[in-house]
Amino acid sequence: MFHLNLLSLKPYPGLKSSTHVLEEEAVHRHLLRTRIKEMAIQICVKAPHSSAKDANTNCPFCQRVLLTLEEKKLRYVTHPIDLDNKPEWFAEANPNGLLPLISFDGGQWVSNSDVIVEMIEMKHPGTPLVTPPYYAYLGLRIPLKLLAFLKKENDRTRHALLAELMRLEEHLLENGPYVNGGDVTTVDLSLAPKLYHLVKACEHFKNWTIFKEFTEVFNYIELLFERPSFKKTKPLPEDVNDRWEDRKLEVNACQ
Predict the structure, then answer these.
(1) Which of 32, 50, 91, 127 has its CA 20 to 30 A from that of 173?
(2) Which CATH number fits the domain that encloses residue 102?
(3) Residues 43, 76: contact at Cβ < 8 Å?
């Protein structure tokens, strides 16, 4: 991966004034930083609740994109966005306020995690992560079933959540260890944040470790959570719990 140490730049030869040298060097470094920033992928994500140094976004849609970039080993610059105090440039670039938001090589900003992941795959086909279409929607309803369960626990909401997990269990039993067999694909990177939220929310709010009932899902989760990309991008448990504290999904802010 390309890396440049800006502090290693040397003053220009032939300049007589030391002040002039410093001024020219400062301008040069600024232009170089700007150019590097334009070359990199820019990704806006929902800012974490925690101010801890190791805090990451608690938005599963944003983490999905970060996981994709990490698995592709792409260089990117992250911009955490406080949705209650949006910077002016963000509001101008993205009037609808949706996250995640991405820009390639200084180009147009694009929202919606599905679209973004497709664009990453198209622009950077190395380390292919494409999921067969017939597997692409596996586990898609887990967050909504979790939301219903957390809002009102009863036999109906519990059964609906368990039914989604059973579908995943049966699929992994036949096709695992990942959704498409031996290699991780985009559907796994979409499911990983959702399952992490499911684990943490059920443990925190319901004192319920549901995955002991699903051996294949449990093994699948361990595989996902041990990947370097997930360890680097996972949110703090308290930030996940804060997200679910109000029992609402930010469907108007993250996709």
Answers:
(1) 127
(2) 3.40.30.10
(3) yes
**pLDDT tens readout for residues 124-139:** 998 899 999 989 889 8
Report in angstroms the alpha-carbon separations of 152 from 28, 146, 156, 201: 59, 10, 10, 14
Number of H helices, E strands in the chain: 10, 4
Question: How do residues 72-122 score in pLDDT, each as one tens digit?
Answer: 999 999 999 998 899 999 988 888 889 999 999 888 999 999 999 999 999
The Cα 251–Cα 46 span in angstroms is 13
Distance between CA atoms of 156 and 160, rounded to whole angstroms?
A: 6
Q: Are residues 143 and 105 in the same domain?
A: no
The tally of domains found in the chain comes to: 2
pTM reported for the whole predicted model: 0.82
Q: From CA 59, how far away is CA 253, in angstroms rounded? A: 10
Lowest-pLDDT choice from 100-114, 166-180, 191-205, 235-249: 235-249
Output the furthest CA–CA distance in the chain (Å, rounded): 81
Is residue 69 situated within a structural domain? yes
Same domain, 188 and 208: yes
Please tell me which residue in 44, 59, 202, 254 is annotated as part of the active site.
Answer: 59
Domain boundary among 123, 150, 169: 123
Is 44 annotated in the active site?
A: no
